[in-house]
Every structure is written in C-alpha cells, then in structure tokens.
Design brief:
This protein is mostly helical. The chain folds into 2 domains: about 45 residues; about 240 residues, MetI-like fold. Helix content is about 75%, strand content about 0%. The chain is built from 13 helices and 2 strands; from the N terminus they run αββαααααααααααα. Strands 1-2 form a two-stranded antiparallel ribbon.
Length: about 325
C-alpha cells in the first residue's frame, strides 16, 4: 500500500511540475507574441482608435483648433442637415459613386477578359494597365488631368482637328464632374488584376463542356464566367464604393480646393476638409466624418446582406 501511495504521489508531483513548465512556456510564448504585436497595437491605439474617440467627442463640440472645445450637443448635426452646401456635397458624391463604380468595374472586367485570352506579352499589358492605379491618387496625375481638359488642353486640340470647338471642361459645371468620373474610370488597374486572378481560377473544363453542348461565347460569359466570378465582383464592389466615397485629391486639385464651379465637384470629403481646415470648424467636420462612417457601414452591411442572393461559389455554396 505504501508503494502504491508513493507512486501516486510521484505521479502527482510529475504532473504538477509538467503543468508549471507548460504554463511558463505558454506565458513566454504569449509574451513574445505581444512584443511582436506591440508596434501595431501602439499604432492602432494612437493613430486609429484614439483619434476616432476624439473625433466622436469633438462632433458634439464647437472647436476651432485654437481654443478649448465647447460642448454644444447635437448642434453640429442640426446645422449640417440644414446646410445647403452639405447636401450639394452629398449629391455630388452619390452621383460620382453611382456612375464611376460601374464604369470602372465594367472597364476592368472587359480588359481582364481580353488579357485572359493568353495574349503574348500579357505581363507587359497587365503592368501598363495597372500603372494608372498606382499613380491615381497623386497630385501630379490630377494636375495632368486638369491640363488635359483645360481650355488650351490636349483634348481641345484633338477636337480642333475635326473642327469641333472645345471648351474648358473642368470649368464648366455641366461637365466638370464627368471629367473626374473619367479619371476614376481610367484607374481600373487594381480591379482588373483582381478580376484576372479570379478568371484564372475558373476551370477550363467547364468551358469545354459548354462548347460541346453548343453554348456560344456569349452564353458561356453569362452562365459560367459571371456566376463563378461573383465573389470577386462582390469584393471589388465593396472596395471601390468605399474608395470612391473617400475620393478627395482629384477634386481638390482640379477645383483648387473650392469644389467649383458652382459646387459641381464638391465631394463630401472636400467639404469636410473645408469645414475643418479652411473654416476651422473642427466639430462640424468631425460630425460629417461620423455620418460618413455610419453611412459607409450601412451600405457595406446592405451589400453583404444582398450578397446571399447573387454571390455564388463553385461548390454551389453562397456567402
């Protein structure tokens, strides 16, 4: 009995020591993980979460960047919803998004379909089409676009060859926004590369079987390519809507920060910038930022909810 008792005690001691060693090792692994995560955590707390909480507080205050914020409750939101310029910025942004996003995605898909045909030098074409996306948010491209569509720009010189009288496209309120839409549509490289990657994943056996059954290229596109590409379309749609709503540089440079002519290029983000850094109404600007965040969240949620009806996967599943 003593032998059995001693054996049990020894096993208990061994198990206890093993647990202690495992806990020490576990804690060390956690410590190492937190050390590697620390730079990201500092950046997240200091550059993301902290400013978000501060802007939420400022949205309920009157703050001119020079004096202590003064609590005004919902006053900024009331002023915002009664501001005609605010609603102009909303209208311009919605128009821009609802035209630019489909145009850009259709352009990206068509080019991706062409590049997926196995053309020689496809890598060169892919790079050429992708470069505008890399330069799209730059000041230089916006300045170039402004000069191209100016009264003495290259576009008008080209039209003059056909005896067509040009005009200042960026200074005409009827056309200024559409020049920005065209600039946005030209920058379809990122979406095109993602579409091309999605096309590469579609099994060729499906097209071969469809061809044997007599399906035309047109029917193959709408019954094989598009359905199997819906997860990629869904991803690009969400990303492009978020990006377009946050567009700023092109409008700021081309309109010289005014959103003109006659508020025709007054993007939401540009008006937010004007309120915060031109008129020093940082509380008002913060309230605009939070409304934009809420609207973006709601739009994304709606797209995710509707995706169950139109996003399909190769195995027959849905999102």
């Amino acid at each position: 009995m003593d032998t059995i008792s001693n054996t049990g005690k020894n096993e208990s001691i061994v198990l206890t020591e093993t647990k202690k060693r495992l806990n020490i090792k576990f804690n060390k692994n956690h410590l190492i993980a937190y050390i590697f995560l620390l730079p990201w955590l500092i950046g997240f707390l200091g550059l993301v979460l902290g400013p978000m909480i501060s802007s939420l507080y400022l949205s309920f205050t009157h703050y001119d960047l020079l004096n202590v914020p003064k609590w005004v409750g919902l006053q900024n939101y009331k002023e915002m919803f009664a501001d005609n310029n605010y609603w102009d910025s909303v209208k311009v942004t919605i128009t821009f998004v609802f035209i630019a996003v489909p145009v850009q995605m259709i352009s990206a898909l068509l080019v991706a379909l062409l590049l997926n045909k196995g053309l020689r030098g496809v890598g060169i074409y892919r790079t050429v089409y992708y470069i505008p996306s890399l330069l799209g948010g730059s000041v230089a491209i916006a300045l170039l676009w402004k000069n191209l569509f100016g009264i003495d720009g290259l576009i008008n010189k080209f039209l003059a060859i056909f005896h067509i009288k040009g005009q200042g496209w960026v200074s005409n309120p009827d056309y200024a926004l559409y020049t920005l839409i065209l600039l946005s549509a030209w920058q379809f490289g990122s979406s095109m590369v993602i579409f091309l990657a999605g096309l590469k994943q579609i099994p060729q056996s499906l097209y071969e079987a469809a061809a044997v059954d007599g399906a035309s290229k047109f029917r193959q596109l709408f019954h094989i390519t598009i359905p199997l590409l819906t997860p990629v379309i869904f991803f690009n749609l969400v990303m492009e809507i978020i990006k377009m709503i946050q567009s700023f540089t092109s409008s700021y440079i081309i309109s010289e920060g005014t959103g003109g002519p006659i508020n025709s290029t007054l993007f939401y983000t540009l008006y937010l910038y004007q309120k915060g850094f031109s008129y020093f109404e940082m509380g008002y600007a913060s309230s605009m930022a939070w409304v934009m965040l809420i609207v973006l969240g709601m739009m994304t949620a709606v797209i995710f909810w509707t995706s169950r009806y139109w996003v399909h996967y190769e195995d027959g599943g849905k999102l």
